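Cross-posting from the modeling subforum.

Setting up a comparison between two proteins and wanted a second pair of eyes on the formatting. Protein 1 (sequence, then structure tokens):
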Amino acid sequence: MRLFDDTYRSYLGPSNHNENPYDFYNRSARNDISIIRNTLEEWFQEYPNDHQKELKNSFVKNFDDCFYELFLYKLFKELGFEIEIHPTLPKSTKRPDFLIQKNEQEIYVEAKIVKNKSNEQEALDRKINEFYDSLSKIDSKGFLLQIDTLIIKGNNQPSTKKLIQFVEREIQKLDPDVITTQLQDKGTESIPVIEVNDDQLHLIIKPMPVIAAARNKKKRPIDVYPIETFWGAGEESLKESISKKAKRYGELDKPFIVCVNSLDMRTSGTIDIENAIWGSIAISWSTDPNNHDEKWIRKKDGLFLDEKGPRLENLSGTFISKVVPHNIPNANYWLFQHPFTTNNLDFESIGLKFSYVKDSQINRVIGDDLDSILSISKNWLNE
């Protein structure tokens, strides 16, 4: 069985805003997409035959979740593990994603995607993406469009036919050479504004002139989208997602790792993730006036420890990544050993870099990055 169709492809354009990722990867002839598609196809062919049909059917519906499961399968396989899909548990009818085995060590593995968006927010995102797909039909005639403001009012999808006609008429009144000169003389304040504010939406578009040499090239008209802002950080969402998975199976007879792919933009890197795992930083100081290295004290609000004491003690540790199809060999990952676990695990034997606590200090063990483990060049999409 194949994951993607074995067919001729000619489409070189971008994905539609609301397009199913699987459909885009299946139809695109772009070089970077072809490389990714071929890589995922190779991984899929290594997946156990008895489970390929189920995985493919899920891929079409839940691309991000299934991509991550396939990524983890390949990762642990390259680390030398034998892998059982959906193993049975002695005290639960529920089944984790994998049981991985190496050198007489067996580990249950559960995979989870974190996006930190409610069903309502995802529904709004689909509505906005559908609106952008319609807006992408605009003939912008020498301009690229900056979407400065988009507010959809109410629950109905805004009508776009008359809107597109209005925007195109407004653009036809503009001369890209004149606007370019005005920009050079007066700066960005001279950018024209096209605004619609009715009972359906509030939309502000700023047409930016394209250089003369590029005006006949076919491009998606929308160049800049409104900046997405967030209130607060994503540490709580990450902790909650791991906690739910850790509690899902109750008491276990083997070590247990929850693997989370954090696609939440609010957990941007190591500091955010370590705050979620070890606890947020309370204070920092230097005990030696001649030594300017700071010492950190963390609050008891982390994944493994809170004010009531150790948490999720059935959990041996957690693996966190920020991997998507385009960044596979360059993606960051973090592996944390639970300092209070009842299911001890030899983390050295896994083959990944990891962090652990000893004598109240956080220590880090150096390991390979994903490009070395998966034998994929960091420059893979440009080779």
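Protein 2 (same layout):
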Amino acid sequence: MGVNQVLRLLNATPFEVRRFQGPPQHREQLSRLKVVHLTDLHFGRVTPIEVQREAVEIANGEKPDLVVITGDFVCHSHRYLDALIAELSRLNAPTIGVLGNHDYWSGEKEVIWALKKAGVEVLRNQWTEMRVRGEKVQVVGLDDAYTGHGDVEQAVKGLRKHIASIGLSHIAEEADALWEKGVPLVLSGHTHGGQITVARLNEIALGRIFGHRYIHGLYGSGANARRSKGSVYVNAGVGAAIIPLRIGEKGRREVVVFELGAEPTVIHKHHGEQEAYPTRLHHNRYLRYRPIRISKKRA
């Protein structure tokens, strides 16, 4: 059995389509806007092209008004940019994305070139306004914070708070700052949900070791969603960067659908808001050493 056949067997994990309505603020600003969220496509050898192709087909099948992709389009190189262009060109809705750490490690200029060729608008610490069926929505794109490119102040400069807005950030922890700037819903990725989610291994690895407060799923800034400043969704993603294994229900590949403006009784949410994972003391030490790790990865 060849390497590609082994990878296909390891990647034979079903997709999960998870559905949510938007935050209460959006019900006052929008009648209905369907957003499909993809992340961590990781075009590369670790993930067979059939996986990204299926994600695109699922997204198109939802007939969204907007598709957003929150970073890590590539895995470790530019060798698969032609495949990226071919697959993402098939998306049937306006598509907006932000970069992730792997895009910078691989070389962001070439990744951006490929995305533009595929028809994906890339936001780098900026926002854009869309009009769908006469309704306006502002999409705020925060550049990758993991590699030190995120700038919240620049990203929200001139944002109008009376118009509905959503934020895109590869790293979920940046949501706290975006909430303070009036962005009530932030979509993110990066963690892959932990990929191996049995016996809470994902929480141990991502929470205790790497210090992530938001690991997978929907989180809010308060226990009561009506009093919270905002919500963040951490998508488990489509591809893989190191190992192709996805084990456990929460580790499945996923496509997430948000029906912004929908009433709570209309959409059956996959789950409610979760409590953030407790911050660990070593998290600050990890952050201090992150620039060194980033420099080595880029080299």
